[in-house]
Design brief:
Layout lengths: L13 H19 L2 H29 L3 E3 L4 E3 L1 H21 L22 H8 L7 H17 L3 H19 L6 H33 L4 H10 L4 H19 L7 H8 L2 H26 L4 H23 L5 H22 L11 H25 E3 L2 E2 L9 H4 L1 H15 L5 H15 L3 H26 L10 E2 L4 H19 L2 H9 L6
Antiparallel strand pairs: 1-2, 3-4, 3-5
Length: about 525
Amino acid sequence: MTIAAPIIEWLLLSPLLVLLGGAALGVLVEAVVPRRSRYVVQAFLATLTVIAALALTITNWISAEPTVAAMGSVTIDRPTYFFWSLLLLFGLGGLALFAERAVGDGQSAFASSAATVPGSPLEREADRLRREHTEIFPLLLFALFGMLLFASANDLLTLFVALEVFSLPLYLLSGMARRRRLLSQEAALKYFLLGALSSGFLLFGISMLYGYSGGFHLYEIADAVTAGVGSNYLLLAGMVLVAAGILFKIGAVPFHSWTPDVYTGAPTPVTGFMAIATKTAAVAALLRVFFVALGGARWDWQPMFAAVAVATMAVGAVIGLVQSDIKRLLAYSSIAHAGFLLVGFVGVVGAGEGVALSSVSAIGFYLLAYGFATLGAFAIITMVRRSGGEANTISAWRGLGRTSPLAAGLMTLFMLSFAGIPLTGGFVGKLVVFASAWEGGFGWLVAVAVLFSLVTAYFYLKLIVAMWFTEPVEGESADVATPSPWTWSVLVVSALGTVFLGLVPGGVLDLANSAGLFIR
């Protein structure tokens, strides 16, 4: 009996391998490098790793032909390169926020000893010695590795493994906030329990689709759907359960309940990274699974996703109106944006059909614009402080435009982009996503999305009014800490990206359009 050696396309998979190798080296650094030097070494190693992975991704995108790699487990096509580039770009922004030490009395946003009981002598001793968790950097690299694999998985087992690889580091990171320790631990526990439940849904759905098609690869499922073999009940049940598992990561209704608590309790740098990177990876996986494997059954799943989109926009917009905590407000904003993304997803406009922009391309552009605004907004939140901690209530931001016009001006720019105001990237992102759904024959859904977009604009404007048109209150208003170049780099890139995508989006739209066609 001859066993064939596996064929691995090392160069094409090099971004994944670099991230995995950098994360493994980061674990080794924790074991051998003295504590006083770990922060510098880990920050440098993680940044170098992500930059190298991004450079390899762009190089392969320019020179390599689309193909299926790793024995059919990973698809390397133009959407893969596009979403990988987005994830690595957001990963760099997340790393910069993780590395910030200038705000917060020169300490990290992360607990000195996250495993100890909050308020215990051991935790006080760790705070006194200014210890910190530098393993946050390899954890972020492991999460990025899983996200890239999740976005490019060509079979359902790889999809499930990738989901667990990027979820477990996020569960840990969510419970490591330096302040409000109990709230942070509660957030991590809720995220873990609900995430485990969603993973069970996904795994059960995978088993249903395997029972229907007899295979795990996306093309095998697509062939079975086209041929109409197997039980239609297995197909429908599998679609619903797989959708549930992925929609949990997107934060769509009814799988959204973790979002407000985790956004509020997690360290703000983790919230900023998770808010955009997790959504990007999950949306990329949703597009690949339902467009490639289940595209032949779209008449069955389109109504389901249309209903989910409406419910998600409604919950995010309406409940967001009454929020007084900025992180919770952005959590419900994230839920509403998940609904807007699903509007474009439902349209199923494919590349090469004589349309200006495919659904994949429109959603990719939307994620880029939303990502710039998200990272920038959470960077500002880390800077606005009171009594040494973050001031997250809207009342604490009153009069910020008078005490710190630069911070208030940048936050206003990001809020306007969230609201979809013209001349910002958010406006163009909503325009192309809604146009994609319109082309797909879902004009009524676009009308609903426009209505809820107007509703969400109210709570963004509420924050803008508080900053610029309200007098600061003595003893309640917050101050703005001066950050290091780490956070300034995020703010500058986010602001420039938001303005650039709003004023001259043509080049990025062309790039997104060229990356809008999946291969099998």
